[in-house]
Amino acid sequence: MLTGRRAEEVTELNAYIARFRPTKIIVERDPGSSVNENYRRYLAGNFELSRDEIHQIAFRLAEQFGIDSLIPGDADNLAWELYYGPDSTLLRPLIDGFYVAAEPGADTTMNAKYFELYTHDDKLLKDHSLLEVFKYMNSPKRILRGHGHYLEFTADPDPDGLAIGWYSRNLRIYRTIQRATTSTDDRILVLFGAGHLGILRQQFESSPRYELVEFNGL
Fold first, then answer.
1. How many of the other CB atoms lie within 10 Å of CB of 73?
2. CA distance 17 to 189
3. Rounded to an integer, what is the distance from CA 27 to the centroid of its chain?
4. What span, in angstroms and rounded, lies between the C-alpha atoms of 190 and 15?
5. SS3 state of residue 62
6. What gap in Å lies between CA 28 and CA 169, rounded to an integer?
7. 203-218 residue pLDDT tens
């Protein structure tokens, strides 16, 4: 990502995303992270960018559009808080029951097919540019298919574990984005791992507060 063809592809990718003209950028980091400390060091010329997508995309675009700080948008989930909370001795056995492995003899064919999909995705970078891969990963069909794995981890995924874990985390992420929205003129770029998009996309499509701008429609 730092030299040669890939470095050129990063420039191409950022030029494409820049069409959105973001006024705020939300990244997949915890509120207590050092992301803005590093961003300020980058602006001052005292920070070397790594291959991390936050460095290569968020830092560069934020500088381009005069954004003074990034918004760390990640969140813990309810399961985590209960598991390590003051009543955890009582709650841990219950929560552990939500996250048991598949029963012996359970059909894991679907799970195996998903890992074949991920292997396919990894190989795409060999023959395709970063922009092409980003367009593929942000296509509605791929987003829906990716979300499906959270429903198919085992032959009988526990709905309560999914609700207080994965759904809880993403609804809290949405709430952070909602709180960061202070104007109807905000153009908010959300830079998160593709697995989050199945839930986050639904929230933005459902809310009358937002207009969802498709990555592939920039």
1. 26
2. 9
3. 8
4. 16
5. helix
6. 12
7. 999 999 999 999 999 8
pLDDT level of residue 102 (50, 70, 90 thresholds): low
- Please give the helix or strand (H or E) that residue 191 lies within, else none: strand 188-191
List of residues 6+ apart from 190 with CB closer than 8 A: 26, 73, 177, 200
**Rounded CA separation 14/28 (Å):** 18
Ranking 22-31, 101-110, 157-166, 190-199 by mean pLDDT, the lowest is: 101-110
For tokens 């460095």, what's the residue? 55
DSSP state of 108: -
Q: How many degrees, rounded to 5, is the angle at CA 139 between CA 136 and CA 145?
A: 100
Cα–Cα dist 29/27, whole Å: 6
Mean pLDDT (the chain) is 92
SS3 assignment, position 153: coil
Nearest-angstrom CA–CA distance, 79 and 92? 9
Asked whether the whole model's pTM tops 0.85, one would answer: yes
Whether 212 and 204 have beta carbons less than 8 Å apart is answered as yes
* pLDDT at 155 > cutoff 60: no
Beta strands in 21-136, from DSSP E residues, in sequence order: 24-27, 71-72
